[in-house]
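Page 47, continued from p. 46.
Same chain as before, 71 aa.
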Amino acid sequence: MNYEIIVSGHIDKRRFRGLAEIELEFLSGGETRITCREFDQASLHALINRIYDLGLTLQVVRRAEQDGYKK
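Result:
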């Protein structure tokens, strides 16, 4: 599964070492979009736990389709 996660603030990818297949995009509103490719449930939970451990504010978590985001 692919996921899109948006958190408050701009973050450094080094904070997510060990989590393969993520891309970070800095949004104009001061958020960071994390795109996760081919994540299973365990990988998604690990990423969400890392976000929590870093004290980041989680704004959006949604499953993404291969060619776009599922609504």
